[in-house]
Amino acid sequence: MAGEDPLYIARRMVRFASEDIGNADPAALQIALNAMEAFRFLGQPEGELALAQAAVYLATAPKSNSIYAAYDRVRADIDKTGALPVPMHIRNAPTKLMKDLGYGKGYQYAHDFQDAFIPQRYLPDNLKDRIYYTPSERAYEKVVKERLEKWRRLQKMVDNKEGKEEKK
User: Fold this and answer.
1) What whole-number distance in Å separates Cα of residue 4 and Cα of residue 10?
2) 141 lies in which domain range?
3) CATH no. for residue 95?
4) Angle at 23 between CA 145 and CA 47, to 5 degrees
5) Which of 28, 60, 119, 129 sits CB 3.0–4.6 Å from 21 for a disulfide?
6) Predicted confidence band at 145 (pLDDT cuts at 50, 70, 90)?
């Protein structure tokens, strides 16, 4: 190390793994955290190798700031709208009164469906069509992007079907 506190460097690598690599390589965050923990456990000079290994991994990992950008969009909407009520169908209903008030009514448990997916809305109505996370085409995010596109197509089919039924 060139005089900087190694734990400060580790902290910056953890931030970098989330902010600049994100879901392009989800393992990056765990590697950065493991390197920090290895340094804490081993101390100097032995732990410096773990930090160096993590630094090389992070430097060569595919990059994406899509999560960072999504987080900014979510924060902006929260600043505009404030705290919005949780949709009734995803509210927990541990009491009879809550059930009677409609908490949990219409909820569908994803694991009961094929591929553990159900085209069900989870955002408040005035945000229902808002898309916050737009994955890149890089590395693992490409897989996530394809999955989200499939789910959005299925959601659109359900929405169109429900729209046609409402018009009848």
Assistant:
1) 11
2) 85-167
3) 1.10.3710
4) 165
5) 28
6) very high
